[in-house]
Amino acid sequence: MPYGLNDWLKFLVNTSREVHSTVKPILGSALASEVVGKGAGGDFTTRIDKLAEDVIINSLKSQNISCIVVSEEGGIMEIGGKSDVHVVIDSIDGTTNAIRGIPFFCTAIGVSKGNSIKDVDAGVVLNLSDGMIFYAEKGKGAYMNDKRIKTSGRASLEDAVIGVDFSKAEKEKIIGLMPLFKKVRHLRHFGANALEICYVASGLIDAFVDVRGILRVTDIAASYVILKEAGGKILKPNGEELDSILEPTQRVSFIAASNPTIYDEILKTINLGK
Amino acid sequence: MPYGLNDWLKFLVNTSREVHSTVKPILGSALASEVVGKGAGGDFTTRIDKLAEDVIINSLKSQNISCIVVSEEGGIMEIGGKSDVHVVIDSIDGTTNAIRGIPFFCTAIGVSKGNSIKDVDAGVVLNLSDGMIFYAEKGKGAYMNDKRIKTSGRASLEDAVIGVDFSKAEKEKIIGLMPLFKKVRHLRHFGANALEICYVASGLIDAFVDVRGILRVTDIAASYVILKEAGGKILKPNGEELDSILEPTQRVSFIAASNPTIYDEILKTINLGK
């Protein structure tokens, strides 16, 4: 079935809400954290990951949608007839938070007309602990709980609140980030990168930096379009456009910034070598 | 009026809920962030800080309680008749989050029979964004939303989720923490230290580390008793008992750990010199 962009957005919002109502009853239970397999991205798949993924796949099938699903858990699979449309799924981003009961984890689904992150046209990110939803489609702006959002205009690092993920980062990268740690007003790391990029999109924080090179493209595909539609930038740490094919094994490094000035300030401050 | 420990706990819970209902209407508004003065701790006082503080002070006065109030905003003040009881207030911990709309900030009130943090007998910490409440009194256990809580038994750093605040830390301290950054499963920093220590108390995270030496004792007095009653430890980074007089200018460095093993692991892993 051919789906227009507007149909996709409705599908994404409805499906993410269905994920929410499905996982809610098992949140915080031992059941949620039971390991049920290993994902295409290399991590263990817990019951809560699988449950959320099944909701999304079943939702695609029940609507007779033809597409290529790209998922951290299930890998790449064709659904329906031949199609160039990629549906990029991170069924649960922030699984550790979800299992621990820390109220910051989400489901993220992006839709792309091609196989590159640049082609992502629509995305939804829903915080599964409180139901807060972020969504966007190309050219139509970004929204948080049905309210139009835009990134902050904050231009100075001294006033900025910046999220950084450097768990498991190499020593050299941490050292390269240190001038940033010193300069910014406050650092944050909440533990679900897709949602943290949406925090940049909505102006709650001013940038989110992950230069480890270990985050999967599936984690950020949906947030990519939400941030761009909110007026933000997401670039590689060397200043180039972020680009990646949409495969569950693809890893990315990026700076997600609320505006060009803060991006430039971050780039000037960190020192990641060549 | 002489207050028993049990009376104090009721007072703390009721007063923190009153703070919640009072600040709720202005959350996220420009009004909340308006600077209305400078606190005894040295930071600017915003309208939301002041509003929360006024609720607590008025609550003490209206109950005819005699005590010494120790507050980040208002400094030290005697209320009612002569008393050794100290009421230690951080009216809003996580003001930046509160102003930005990031749903992680709290009010924290501790009650102490003397002027040292070791004397703190009862405490309450209430997350003002979602109403989640943590409280404890000495010898009676710690609670989250009326459910008894205890710290996690997790003993290995490789499995641990650890909160670290190193905003504005000296370069040497960040370097000393780097082996910890590398070793733990996940790092977190949510931005309200009183609440983050309660996350340790309730087993959501396994430790919280702040070795900057810039956090005020008023920020952690309430959480101190909640963590201890939940079975956790809070010690100086050199292994000594945490101690500090209860004054708004006093600064502390500490490791709040869920159990002695994880505390020892952290201590072995970090290198803060002498």
Can you walk through the features of this model?
The structure is a homodimer of 274-residue chains. Chain A is an alpha+beta fold and 274 residues long. Chain A is built from 8 helices and 15 strands. Chain A has an 8-stranded mixed sheet with strand order 4-3-5-6-7-8-9-10, sandwiched between helices. A 5-stranded mixed sheet of chain A has the order 12-11-13-15-14, with helices on both faces. A two-stranded antiparallel ribbon of chain A has the order 1-2. The termini of chain A are far apart. At the A-B interface, α5 and β12 of A face α5 and β12 of B.
- Strand residue percentage of chain A: 25-35%
What is the typical, i.e. mean, pLDDT of chain A? 92
* Helix-strand pattern of chain A: HHEEHEEEHEEEEEEHEHEHEEH
CA(first)-CA(last) distance of chain A: 47 Å
Give the count of helical stretches of chain A. Answer: 8
Largest sheet: number of strands, sense, barrel closure of chain A:
8 strands, mixed
Rg of chain A, please?
A: 18 Å
Morphology call of chain A: globular
How would you describe the oligomerization state of the chains in this entry? homodimer
What structural class do the secondary elements of chain A suggest? alpha+beta
Instruction: Give the proportion of residues in helices of chain A.
Output: 25-40%
- List the strand order in the largest sheet of chain A: 4-3-5-6-7-8-9-10
Number of strands of chain A: 15
